[in-house]
Design a protein that fits this description.
Elements lengths: L1 E8 L15 E5 L3 H4 L4 H11 L5 E10 L7 H16 L6 E6 L4 E2 L3 E2 L1 H11 L5 E5 L7 H6 L2 E4 L8 H18 L3 E8 L15 H12 L4 E7 L12 E8 L2 H17 L9 E3 L1 H10 L5 E5 L14 H7 L2 H4 L5 E7 L1 H9 L5 E6 L11 E14 L4 E8 L2 E6 L9 H5 L9 E4 L6 H4 L4 E5 L33
Helix pairs in contact: 2-6, 3-4, 7-8
């Protein structure tokens, strides 16, 4: 069996003014994916699982991945799509296509990407199965449903089951090929949006809802069940929660379970709460300062680059820099971080222990934030760090150390602290541009507090300027009715 594989991963925040371009992407062609596969778990799940089957050949084509950000430039997208099409045409005969896509990738001036990609793939391979692993925050469109045979999404938030989801897509591919029976997929849209910080799967009601997915998957003939939550920081017509079920040649069973799962999700709509203790920015900082634990993590949630925000908002940072309680800390508060290529360049040019006056922030988001100017010195610097080859500096102003980066990356791991010579266990207070903490940060944090700050990933969804989503939509329309 010859299985064609490809992968496109980007979560596009339409409220972020940055246009994501080539500099933001890591692109792997053909066998290059085997060098990067350790850090691309859903693709690894697809490829390694398929290659474990006797008689299966994997044909890798094109893989592109970037940290969540603003919409992708149309010229870059069209270039990548054309390259994918050319590579697919060179494949020749194939038995199936198994993909790892995000599901909420959007293109400036075009709209959804995944439906367009799937349509292009289907035009080349009209008669073979197309199976897709998706992110939990995929937004399901009619075009996606038309041009794919089966979807399955992550069941864990934070997303710790990316490999397993890719493996499930591979298993469904094998099932349909070896039985000769078609995959049948049904879904039901639930008119609501939910912030990621209210849907962490280790807590209720998501824990119960995911358990119901797993229970349903154990039924004979059910291959995959998913809650695909949409992406709340994208203003698009299709955006909502979708329950989706894949069966083996049984569309009625798929629709029955999709409807039941949708009813269950809607029933819980008023029970989704912030998992982390959450406050307005000043109160959140003071709660963190008063906490007896250490280290305490404080999330700058409104400007979370892993939710596609610009990572250059300074609202919470300004409060921190001017707060007397921060000045009294035994060790400097560590703030991660600010995306500002110009400020990084200035810091890299500064001499050792040289006092400089630095302006930073609001390089891209000039609506919800403003630049800050502070005196300080560069405490540490490193160039070409990590997957995206990022230049980082640690700029100390007063009793705050600010990580500045020249690439739009996620502040997802203490590894970047260690790279700059900082042991997070030595600090009382660490601020990160995240919502809920990643697993790596959770291992370090003694306590977590979330600031409901401003930016492109504002947690208070009702405050965002939606124009395209279909109304009524919960929680924008709290008293709406919905029945299946």
């Amino acid at each position: 069996m010859r299985i064609v594989t490809a992968g496109f991963h980007h979560e596009s925040n339409t409220f972020n003014p940055i246009v994501t371009d080539m500099i933001d992407f890591n692109i792997y062609r053909g066998d290059e994916i085997y060098e990067a596969i350790k850090s691309y778990a859903s693709v690894r799940g697809v490829v390694e699982t398929l290659e474990s089957y006797e008689g299966y050949e994997v044909v890798p084509t094109l893989f592109a991945r970037a940290v969540p950000n603003g919409e992708i430039s149309q010229s870059l997208y069209e270039s990548l799509k054309q390259e994918l099409v050319e590579r697919l045409k060179q494949v020749g005969e194939a038995d199936a296509v198994t993909l790892a896509l995000h599901g909420s990738m959007r293109v400036k001036g075009l709209g959804e990407a995944e439906g367009d990609i799937l349509e292009a793939i289907r035009s080349i391979f009209p008669d073979i199965p197309v199976v897709v692993a998706l992110d939990m925050h995929a937004t399901i469109s009619e075009k996606m449903l038309t041009h794919a045979d089966a979807f399955c999404g992550y069941k864990q938030a934070p997303h710790t089951d990316c490999f397993e989801t890719g493996a499930l897509a591979a298993e469904m591919t094998k099932k349909t090929l070896e039985t000769g029976r078609p995959l049948t997929m049904s879904c039901r849209r639930v008119p609501m949006l939910i912030a990621g910080e209210k849907s962490e799967t280790s807590t209720q009601p998501m824990k119960q809802l995911i358990e119901e997915l797993r229970k349903t998957e154990k039924e004979e003939g059910v291959l995959a069940t998913s809650y695909l939550l949409g992406f709340p920081w994208a203003d698009s017509e299709d955006n909502c929660v979708t329950s989706l079920v894949v069966t083996l040649d049984d569309p009625e069973k798929a629709q029955h379970h999709a409807d039941a799962l949708a009813r269950l999700f809607w029933k819980e709509r008023n029970n989704f709460k912030f998992v982390t203790e959450s406050y307005a920015p000043l109160e959140a900082l003071e709660k963190a300062l008063e906490a007896p634990e250490r280290p305490v993590y404080l999330s700058d949630s409104g400007d979370n680059p892993t939710a596609g925000s610009s990572a250059d908002c300074t609202g919470l940072l300004e409060i921190i820099l001017d707060h007397p309680g921060v000045m009294d800390l035994e060790q400097p508060l560590l703030y991660a971080g600010i995306y500002d290529p110009s400020a990084v360049e200035t810091c890299l040019a500064a001499g050792p222990d040289e006092n400089i006056t630095l302006t930073f922030g609001a390089c891209f988001d000039k609506v919800t934030t403003k630049p800050l100017t502070r005196e300080g010195r560069v405490a540490a610097r490193i160039q070409g760090w990590g997957t995206y080859g990022t230049d980082m500096v640690l700029f100390r102003s007063g009793n705050t150390e600010i990580i500045l980066v020249n690439r739009h990356i996620g502040f997802v791991s203490p590894d970047m602290f260690h790279a700059l010579g900082v042991d997070p266990l030595d600090r009382k207070l660490i601020t990160v541009k995240l919502g809920y903490l990643t697993a790596d940060h959770k291992e370090v944090a003694a306590r977590s507090v979330m600031a409901l700050s401003s930016g492109s990933s504002n947690e208070i969804l009702e405050s965002l300027p939606y124009k395209k989503v279909k109304r009524p939509l919960f929680p924008l329309d709290k008293d709406m009715e919905f029945k299946i």
